[in-house]
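Much of our argument rests on the idea that a fold can be written as discrete symbols. In the encoding step, the backbone of a single protein was reduced to a row of integers, each denoting a local shape. We regard such an encoding as a compact summary of how the chain folds. The record that follows shows the chain in one-letter code together with its fold in token form:
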Amino acid sequence: MPSLKNLLPAGGSAARRLPAILLTAGVVLLALGPWWADRASLRLLSEFFYMLALAQMWNLLAGYGGLLSIGQQAYVGLGGYVLVLFGLKLGLNPFLTIPLAGLVCGLLAWPIGLLMFRLRGAYFAVGTWVVAEVCRLLLANVSAFGGGSGISVTATLRGMPAAWREALTLWSALALGLGATGLVFLLLRSRHGLALTAVRDSVRAAASLGVSTRRIQWFVHVVCAMGCGMAGALIFITKLRISPDAAFSIDWMVAMIFIVVIGGIGTIEGPLVGTLLYFILREQLSGYGSWYLIIVGLLTVAVMLWSPKGLWGSLHARFGLELFRVRRNLAMDRPRSADN
């Protein structure tokens, strides 16, 4: 009688290594962007990758962790104000404030989590939004940071050549976008990823199997706060000015949800597809004013109705496409012969 031996990530043949080879070549090409792309293209690429980082973090939180937050803009804004404090006020190199913003947001996520994890379901979602609004109101009353009207951070880049600044921005965005994608992939390939998906599917069932549900969700909450904080610091390096309304805007959350829902929630590839579609729609339709928002909203509703798993989920169901193999197959012991 065959016995269950292990749960192993699904393997792949040599042909399946082609996407990894192409991905590596693409990363190298993008990293060389400062030598072949114009300034507008560099800025667009930087924006693409920091939005990808935000989308992957929310996808990890909601799609895999089962924590439906609508307040991740709190950490985007806090990351931006870490740039103001350490970059503008204390004179630290602005690009060094990016990892520092992740650290600060991770530390702040601990006490915030103490409060948020007392809530469940819709109460948790609303609670995260309330936290973001509280952060916005608090920063709007700090005159040293410009108050409600905001403050310019241009001085943090003074003396840095424009070409060097654009290159560092692109490389930082690449590190965030690809790093967030790689982090989710490695996490899901680990035993912690198996526990995380079990918690997402059923907290009670996972707890009955010995999974520390609170610990794994807490870990994901802190990791996502760090990712959003680092992205926030980079965002306002590129924008050169920060204000509470811009830093803690619900628009950051709307973009994350749109990207993940359209691309495919609960998949690593979904945010990649969703981010690409988000930028295509924005570049092609932004000139139509309010019609742009109407079209985006109708597209989101259509995808949720006819393709609940998102565009990548539909492609995977129909063609079996998979760039990041994180599914697990049952590995069974072979039956022993009578001689053994």
In short: Residues 250-324 form one domain.
